[in-house]
Amino acid sequence: MPSPPAGTEKQAVAFDYALRLSDGIASSDPLWQARLAQLQFGNLSQRDALRACELLNASYCPVSELATGRFFVTFYNPASRLSWHSARLPVTGRYYRVLDEAGAPVTSQTIPVNNGTLRVPERNLSIAVNELAFFVASIPPLGYAVYSVEPCNSTDPGASVFTPILPTTNAGRSASEISVGLAFYIGMRGNSSGEQFRPSGAYVFRPTTDRPQTLSARIQAQVIGPVVNETHFNYNDWAYLVTRQYPGASSNYLEAESTVGPLPLDDGVGREVVAVYSADGLSASSGEFLVDSNGRQLMRARRDPSRPEAAQFRPANAIVSVADAARQLTVLTDRAAAASSRPAEGQLSVMLHRVTLDDDGFGVGEALRERGSDGRGLVVKTSHWYFLAEPAASADRYRLLASQRHRSP
Q1: 186 confidence band (pLDDT: 50, 70, 90)
Q2: Enclosing H/E stretch for 259
Q3: Three-class SS of residue 150?
Q4: Which segments constitute the Lysosomal alpha-mannosidase-like central domain (predicted)?
């Protein structure tokens, strides 16, 4: 599930673009396999044994899932500085031993695949029921680190800790003072016969109200373990959210992973779903927020109450942030998205998924109604990193995290 490029086009064009990207990636496999085999083994005889896990964000990797004994995981660092990585591999068992390059045991944790991920149709061939999480502490610049993983018994030294997803009634706000939730706008219907009849569509975001409808979680659950703590929110059949808090070197951020879709269409309503971030006591009353310019710099944006809701959003390729005199809330996206300091002062909204029922009349000639790989409707899986810090310290932190995020091993 690679992140889609920004832009709007007919569905057939999007399919063709995805096919070309896939063909390009596949054609490059022999190159990196040969180079990595030469570096690791000193010859090319082992290159066919190297495989890439291209659907890890859908929790699907045939190598880790089908392995019955020890296998090796290579983490390549594309950045020109030392890097780290919070690894997560789909597996079929509960207990594994992870060893670093020196043969030392690495703390690891197995977690059941959550219900949101299970909805992703791209993993329909997966047999994994758990995910193995561990921290890769150091990967050299433009280099790699190799870790070994093998199944074991729960009583073996260095065995991973199995942490089930347990229902809870106290899975709300974390100690970070930041809360995350999901909400949605209802898109305007129309036939584009005039501006007053312009519907929400592929080019046009035109919600019926100035405030989104907040979703309430039906089920809340949590995972507590040595590698990661998680809070799970199951809103309905099409919205699932997991927030994660990591210890150690990566503890200077939190993660929100949302799985949205297929969005319902049987009620004749188009939905446009956002993630809403709130920080306790953040009182940014100027209406000003920051978005990045293609990852190179931050630009100031200001909400204008005299303009409609759609005009309050700006394109954010990597970062969106809002601050008061004492604290700054920052969200790092994994793809280009619309973002705003909405629906209230000091909050941030980031668009996750859109489905509209009418063509907006600006050239695409069809509604934004993607069918997905199984024809039931598109499922979008998104990961955001976020943190709260003093404004003076935020810039250094988001620069390092943005580099880590977009040059991830």
Answers
A1: very high
A2: strand 254-260
A3: strand
A4: 106-149
